[in-house]
cellulose 1,4-beta-cellobiosidase (non-reducing end) (uncultured symbiotic protist of Reticulitermes speratus), 342 residues
Amino acid sequence: MFVVFLFFSNLFAESNPSLTYTYNGASRTGYIVVDQEWRDTATADVNYSAIGVSTSGSSLTQVLVTPSGAIGSRLYLLDSTKSSYELFALVGNVEFSYDVDMSDLPCGMNAALYTIEMNKNGLKNDAQLGTGYCDAQFLGMVDGKQVSGCAELDIWEANREATVYTTHPCTFTGQSTKGSGSCQSDGCGFNAYRYGEKNFYGPSSSFTLDTTKKFTVVTQFIGNPLTEIKRYYIQGGKTIPNANPLVYNTANYDSITDAFCKTAGHNPDTNTNIAAMGKSLARGHVLSFSLWDSNDGMGWLDASEYGPCPGGTADSAATLEKNHPGSHVVWSNVKFGPVSNL
Ligand SMILES: *[C@@H]1O[C@H](CO)[C@@H](O)[C@H](O)[C@H]1NC(C)=O
Protein backbone atom coordinates (compact mmCIF):
# COMPACT_ATOMS: atom_id res chain seq x y z
CA MET A 1 0.00 0.00 0.00
CA PHE A 2 2.84 2.36 0.90
CA VAL A 3 4.46 1.92 -2.50
CA VAL A 4 1.15 2.50 -4.25
CA PHE A 5 0.60 5.69 -2.25
CA LEU A 6 4.01 7.09 -3.23
CA PHE A 7 3.38 6.21 -6.86
CA PHE A 8 0.09 8.06 -6.92
CA SER A 9 1.37 11.06 -4.98
CA ASN A 10 4.07 11.52 -7.61
CA LEU A 11 1.73 11.03 -10.51
CA PHE A 12 -0.92 13.51 -9.37
CA ALA A 13 -0.84 17.05 -8.05
CA GLU A 14 1.29 18.08 -5.09
CA SER A 15 0.20 17.23 -1.56
CA ASN A 16 -0.96 20.59 -0.26
CA PRO A 17 -0.78 20.77 3.54
CA SER A 18 -4.32 20.68 4.97
CA LEU A 19 -5.53 23.28 7.44
CA THR A 20 -8.67 23.21 9.56
CA TYR A 21 -10.48 26.46 10.32
CA THR A 22 -13.88 27.58 11.54
CA TYR A 23 -16.29 29.27 9.12
CA ASN A 24 -19.64 30.48 10.49
CA GLY A 25 -19.37 28.10 13.41
CA ALA A 26 -18.58 24.99 11.35
CA SER A 27 -15.21 23.32 11.08
CA ARG A 28 -13.79 23.22 7.55
CA THR A 29 -10.71 21.57 6.10
CA GLY A 30 -8.93 23.56 3.43
CA TYR A 31 -5.50 23.40 1.85
CA ILE A 32 -2.45 25.60 1.72
CA VAL A 33 -1.01 26.55 -1.65
CA VAL A 34 2.14 28.59 -2.21
CA ASP A 35 2.16 31.43 -4.71
CA GLN A 36 3.08 30.61 -8.29
CA GLU A 37 6.38 32.53 -7.95
CA TRP A 38 7.73 29.83 -5.60
CA ARG A 39 7.46 27.16 -8.33
CA ASP A 40 10.40 26.16 -10.50
CA THR A 41 8.11 26.11 -13.52
CA ALA A 42 4.48 27.19 -13.88
CA THR A 43 3.13 23.68 -13.38
CA ALA A 44 5.83 22.13 -11.14
CA ASP A 45 4.71 20.46 -7.92
CA VAL A 46 5.96 21.97 -4.69
CA ASN A 47 7.53 20.05 -1.81
CA TYR A 48 6.16 22.04 1.14
CA SER A 49 8.72 20.77 3.69
CA ALA A 50 11.44 22.00 1.37
CA ILE A 51 10.00 25.54 1.44
CA GLY A 52 9.60 25.54 5.22
CA VAL A 53 5.80 25.27 5.28
CA SER A 54 4.01 22.76 7.48
CA THR A 55 0.59 22.32 9.03
CA SER A 56 -0.90 20.25 11.83
CA GLY A 57 -4.65 20.45 12.42
CA SER A 58 -5.45 24.15 12.63
CA SER A 59 -1.82 25.25 12.90
CA LEU A 60 0.42 26.56 10.10
CA THR A 61 4.17 27.24 10.37
CA GLN A 62 6.32 29.31 7.98
CA VAL A 63 10.14 29.47 8.24
CA LEU A 64 12.48 32.15 6.85
CA VAL A 65 15.44 30.23 5.41
CA THR A 66 14.18 26.95 4.03
CA PRO A 67 15.86 23.66 2.98
CA SER A 68 15.27 24.48 -0.71
CA GLY A 69 17.02 27.83 -0.31
CA ALA A 70 13.78 29.75 -0.84
CA ILE A 71 13.33 32.68 1.54
CA GLY A 72 10.01 32.74 3.39
CA SER A 73 6.74 32.07 1.60
CA ARG A 74 3.46 33.59 0.48
CA LEU A 75 0.58 31.17 0.94
CA TYR A 76 -3.14 31.16 0.16
CA LEU A 77 -6.01 29.18 1.63
CA LEU A 78 -7.79 26.87 -0.81
CA ASP A 79 -11.24 25.59 0.15
CA SER A 80 -12.11 21.90 0.55
CA THR A 81 -12.27 21.38 -3.24
CA LYS A 82 -8.54 22.23 -3.47
CA SER A 83 -9.27 24.01 -6.76
CA SER A 84 -10.69 27.35 -5.55
CA TYR A 85 -9.63 29.81 -2.92
CA GLU A 86 -11.75 30.18 0.21
CA LEU A 87 -13.44 33.59 0.23
CA PHE A 88 -14.08 35.83 3.21
CA ALA A 89 -16.63 38.69 3.08
CA LEU A 90 -15.38 40.90 5.91
CA VAL A 91 -18.34 43.28 6.36
CA GLY A 92 -21.62 43.42 8.26
CA ASN A 93 -20.67 42.68 11.89
CA VAL A 94 -18.42 39.72 11.33
CA GLU A 95 -15.12 38.90 12.95
CA PHE A 96 -11.92 37.19 11.89
CA SER A 97 -9.62 35.75 14.53
CA TYR A 98 -6.55 33.57 14.87
CA ASP A 99 -3.82 32.73 17.34
CA VAL A 100 -0.27 33.66 16.52
CA ASP A 101 3.18 32.95 17.96
CA MET A 102 5.43 35.89 17.08
CA SER A 103 8.17 35.06 19.58
CA ASP A 104 10.80 34.10 16.99
CA LEU A 105 10.39 37.12 14.69
CA PRO A 106 13.01 39.80 15.34
CA CYS A 107 13.25 43.36 14.01
CA GLY A 108 13.14 43.46 10.21
CA MET A 109 10.88 40.41 9.79
CA ASN A 110 7.31 40.69 8.54
CA ALA A 111 4.78 37.96 9.32
CA ALA A 112 1.66 39.10 7.50
CA LEU A 113 -1.89 37.80 7.50
CA TYR A 114 -3.87 39.73 4.93
CA THR A 115 -6.66 39.51 2.40
CA ILE A 116 -6.78 40.54 -1.25
CA GLU A 117 -9.51 40.68 -3.90
CA MET A 118 -8.10 37.83 -6.01
CA ASN A 119 -10.34 35.74 -8.24
CA LYS A 120 -11.75 32.71 -6.47
CA ASN A 121 -10.43 30.48 -9.26
CA GLY A 122 -6.99 32.03 -9.77
CA LEU A 123 -5.80 33.48 -13.05
CA LYS A 124 -7.11 30.79 -15.45
CA ASN A 125 -8.99 28.30 -13.28
CA ASP A 126 -5.66 27.26 -11.81
CA ALA A 127 -5.88 28.35 -8.19
CA GLN A 128 -4.38 24.98 -7.22
CA LEU A 129 -1.11 26.37 -8.67
CA GLY A 130 -1.26 29.50 -6.52
CA THR A 131 -2.04 31.86 -9.40
CA GLY A 132 -3.88 35.17 -9.62
CA TYR A 133 -2.14 37.23 -6.95
CA CYS A 134 -2.80 40.95 -6.86
CA ASP A 135 -2.33 43.62 -4.21
CA ALA A 136 -2.46 47.34 -3.62
CA GLN A 137 1.17 47.76 -4.80
CA PHE A 138 0.34 46.05 -8.17
CA LEU A 139 2.76 43.20 -7.42
CA GLY A 140 0.63 40.43 -8.94
CA MET A 141 2.34 38.69 -11.86
CA VAL A 142 0.57 38.27 -15.19
CA ASP A 143 2.59 36.80 -18.11
CA GLY A 144 5.85 37.39 -16.26
CA LYS A 145 5.16 41.07 -15.51
CA GLN A 146 4.32 42.62 -12.15
CA VAL A 147 1.12 44.44 -13.01
CA SER A 148 -1.92 43.16 -11.23
CA GLY A 149 -3.49 45.37 -8.56
CA CYS A 150 -6.46 44.93 -6.26
CA ALA A 151 -7.74 46.07 -2.89
CA GLU A 152 -5.86 44.69 0.10
CA LEU A 153 -6.62 44.51 3.79
CA ASP A 154 -3.58 43.98 5.98
CA ILE A 155 -5.12 42.45 9.09
CA TRP A 156 -1.65 41.85 10.47
CA GLU A 157 1.84 42.94 9.47
CA ALA A 158 4.17 42.43 12.40
CA ASN A 159 7.22 41.04 14.11
CA ARG A 160 7.71 40.67 17.87
CA GLU A 161 8.59 44.40 18.19
CA ALA A 162 5.98 46.16 16.07
CA THR A 163 2.55 45.70 14.51
CA VAL A 164 0.17 47.54 12.20
CA TYR A 165 -3.17 46.86 10.47
CA THR A 166 -3.97 48.78 7.31
CA THR A 167 -6.70 49.37 4.72
CA HIS A 168 -5.72 49.67 1.02
CA PRO A 169 -8.81 50.27 -1.15
CA CYS A 170 -8.62 50.83 -4.94
CA THR A 171 -10.51 53.03 -7.40
CA PHE A 172 -11.71 49.99 -9.39
CA THR A 173 -13.61 46.74 -8.85
CA GLY A 174 -11.72 43.45 -8.87
CA GLN A 175 -8.30 43.58 -10.52
CA SER A 176 -6.70 46.12 -12.78
CA THR A 177 -3.35 46.89 -14.35
CA LYS A 178 -1.27 49.82 -13.20
CA GLY A 179 -2.29 53.04 -14.93
CA SER A 180 -5.89 52.04 -15.59
CA GLY A 181 -6.71 52.52 -11.93
CA SER A 182 -5.01 53.19 -8.66
CA CYS A 183 -4.92 51.84 -5.13
CA GLN A 184 -4.18 53.61 -1.88
CA SER A 185 -0.67 52.20 -1.68
CA ASP A 186 0.38 53.71 1.66
CA GLY A 187 -3.03 52.89 3.13
CA CYS A 188 -4.56 53.94 6.42
CA GLY A 189 -2.67 52.04 9.09
CA PHE A 190 -3.22 51.71 12.84
CA ASN A 191 0.13 51.40 14.65
CA ALA A 192 -0.23 52.39 18.31
CA TYR A 193 3.53 52.95 18.76
CA ARG A 194 3.46 55.60 16.06
CA TYR A 195 0.94 57.57 18.10
CA GLY A 196 2.82 57.27 21.37
CA GLU A 197 1.63 54.00 22.95
CA LYS A 198 5.09 52.49 23.12
CA ASN A 199 4.39 50.03 25.94
CA PHE A 200 1.47 48.23 24.31
CA TYR A 201 3.22 45.59 22.16
CA GLY A 202 6.61 43.99 22.65
CA PRO A 203 8.74 41.04 23.75
CA SER A 204 8.45 40.97 27.56
CA SER A 205 5.86 40.90 30.33
CA SER A 206 6.33 44.66 30.78
CA PHE A 207 4.24 45.18 27.61
CA THR A 208 0.42 45.02 27.65
CA LEU A 209 0.64 42.35 24.95
CA ASP A 210 3.69 40.14 25.52
CA THR A 211 4.97 38.84 22.19
CA THR A 212 7.15 36.18 23.81
CA LYS A 213 3.88 34.26 24.31
CA LYS A 214 1.11 33.19 21.97
CA PHE A 215 -2.00 35.39 21.75
CA THR A 216 -5.30 35.68 19.88
CA VAL A 217 -5.94 38.53 17.44
CA VAL A 218 -9.63 39.39 16.93
CA THR A 219 -10.60 41.85 14.19
CA GLN A 220 -14.22 42.98 13.86
CA PHE A 221 -15.86 44.48 10.78
CA ILE A 222 -18.73 46.74 11.74
CA GLY A 223 -21.56 47.67 9.38
CA ASN A 224 -22.27 47.20 5.69
CA PRO A 225 -21.36 49.74 4.31
CA LEU A 226 -18.31 49.18 6.50
CA THR A 227 -17.80 51.94 9.07
CA GLU A 228 -15.22 50.58 11.48
CA ILE A 229 -12.53 47.90 11.84
CA LYS A 230 -12.09 47.09 15.51
CA ARG A 231 -9.40 45.04 17.23
CA TYR A 232 -8.87 43.28 20.51
CA TYR A 233 -6.54 40.57 21.79
CA ILE A 234 -6.74 37.61 24.16
CA GLN A 235 -3.67 36.39 26.03
CA GLY A 236 -3.46 33.98 28.95
CA GLY A 237 -7.28 33.89 29.14
CA LYS A 238 -7.47 37.68 29.48
CA THR A 239 -9.15 40.01 26.99
CA ILE A 240 -6.89 42.92 26.10
CA PRO A 241 -8.60 45.92 24.47
CA ASN A 242 -6.73 47.55 21.61
CA ALA A 243 -4.40 50.45 22.38
CA ASN A 244 -6.19 53.80 22.40
CA PRO A 245 -3.57 56.40 21.52
CA LEU A 246 -4.05 60.14 21.28
CA VAL A 247 -3.43 60.76 17.58
CA TYR A 248 -1.58 64.00 16.79
CA ASN A 249 -2.97 65.69 19.90
CA THR A 250 -6.45 65.58 18.34
CA ALA A 251 -8.45 62.60 19.61
CA ASN A 252 -8.00 59.07 20.94
CA TYR A 253 -8.66 56.18 18.55
CA ASP A 254 -8.71 52.43 19.17
CA SER A 255 -9.93 51.32 15.72
CA ILE A 256 -9.83 52.24 12.03
CA THR A 257 -12.63 54.61 11.06
CA ASP A 258 -12.77 57.49 8.58
CA ALA A 259 -12.29 59.85 11.55
CA PHE A 260 -9.09 58.02 12.56
CA CYS A 261 -7.78 58.02 8.97
CA LYS A 262 -8.53 61.73 8.64
CA THR A 263 -6.75 62.59 11.89
CA ALA A 264 -3.84 60.39 10.82
CA GLY A 265 -3.55 62.50 7.64
CA HIS A 266 -5.07 60.26 4.97
CA ASN A 267 -8.00 62.54 4.05
CA PRO A 268 -10.39 59.76 3.01
CA ASP A 269 -12.50 60.40 -0.11
CA THR A 270 -15.04 58.12 -1.79
CA ASN A 271 -12.22 56.02 -3.29
CA THR A 272 -10.13 55.72 -0.16
CA ASN A 273 -12.61 55.70 2.73
CA ILE A 274 -13.53 52.70 4.80
CA ALA A 275 -16.78 52.19 2.84
CA ALA A 276 -14.66 51.77 -0.33
CA MET A 277 -12.59 49.14 1.48
CA GLY A 278 -15.86 47.51 2.58
CA LYS A 279 -17.22 47.33 -0.99
CA SER A 280 -14.22 45.28 -2.00
CA LEU A 281 -14.36 43.11 1.13
CA ALA A 282 -18.06 42.42 0.52
CA ARG A 283 -17.19 40.85 -2.85
CA GLY A 284 -14.99 38.33 -1.00
CA HIS A 285 -11.25 38.28 -0.37
CA VAL A 286 -8.68 35.50 -0.48
CA LEU A 287 -6.62 34.86 2.66
CA SER A 288 -2.84 35.10 2.46
CA PHE A 289 -0.17 34.17 5.01
CA SER A 290 3.21 35.64 4.24
CA LEU A 291 6.64 35.59 5.86
CA TRP A 292 9.23 37.92 4.35
CA ASP A 293 12.25 40.14 4.88
CA SER A 294 13.61 42.98 2.78
CA ASN A 295 16.95 44.31 1.57
CA ASP A 296 16.23 47.63 3.29
CA GLY A 297 14.82 46.26 6.54
CA MET A 298 11.18 46.90 7.52
CA GLY A 299 11.54 50.52 8.71
CA TRP A 300 7.97 51.51 7.70
CA LEU A 301 6.76 48.90 10.24
CA ASP A 302 9.26 48.85 13.08
CA ALA A 303 11.85 51.69 13.03
CA SER A 304 11.91 55.43 13.80
CA GLU A 305 8.38 56.68 14.55
CA TYR A 306 6.92 53.22 13.79
CA GLY A 307 8.76 51.07 16.32
CA PRO A 308 11.88 50.48 18.41
CA CYS A 309 14.00 48.71 15.76
CA PRO A 310 17.17 50.07 14.15
CA GLY A 311 15.90 49.56 10.56
CA GLY A 312 18.16 49.74 7.49
CA THR A 313 21.14 47.38 7.09
CA ALA A 314 20.96 46.23 10.75
CA ASP A 315 17.62 44.61 9.83
CA SER A 316 18.32 43.78 6.19
CA ALA A 317 17.47 40.47 4.55
CA ALA A 318 21.17 39.52 4.43
CA THR A 319 21.59 40.18 8.18
CA LEU A 320 18.43 38.31 9.14
CA GLU A 321 19.12 35.32 6.92
CA LYS A 322 22.63 35.03 8.42
CA ASN A 323 21.79 35.67 12.09
CA HIS A 324 18.19 34.40 12.33
CA PRO A 325 17.70 31.80 9.57
CA GLY A 326 15.22 29.82 11.67
CA SER A 327 12.87 32.78 12.23
CA HIS A 328 9.35 31.47 11.98
CA VAL A 329 5.71 32.25 12.62
CA VAL A 330 2.99 29.87 13.80
CA TRP A 331 -0.61 30.75 12.93
CA SER A 332 -3.48 28.69 14.34
CA ASN A 333 -7.24 28.55 15.00
CA VAL A 334 -8.40 30.74 12.12
CA LYS A 335 -12.05 31.57 12.75
CA PHE A 336 -14.53 33.64 10.73
CA GLY A 337 -18.15 34.33 11.60
CA PRO A 338 -20.62 36.70 13.22
CA VAL A 339 -19.27 39.05 15.88
CA SER A 340 -19.17 37.26 19.24
CA ASN A 341 -19.10 40.37 21.42
CA LEU A 342 -18.94 44.11 20.83
C1 LIG B 1 10.94 17.25 0.47
O1 LIG B 1 11.87 18.11 1.10
C2 LIG B 1 12.41 17.56 2.31
C3 LIG B 1 13.24 18.66 2.95
O2 LIG B 1 14.20 19.20 2.08
C4 LIG B 1 13.20 16.31 1.96
O3 LIG B 1 13.74 15.74 3.14
C5 LIG B 1 12.28 15.31 1.26
O4 LIG B 1 13.04 14.20 0.82
C6 LIG B 1 11.61 15.95 0.05
N1 LIG B 1 10.61 15.02 -0.48
C7 LIG B 1 10.57 14.68 -1.77
C8 LIG B 1 9.45 13.75 -2.16
O5 LIG B 1 11.35 15.11 -2.60
Summary: The two ends are 52 Å apart (CA to CA). The domain at 2-338 is CATH 2.70.100.10 (1,4-Beta-D-Glucan Cellobiohydrolase I; Chain A).
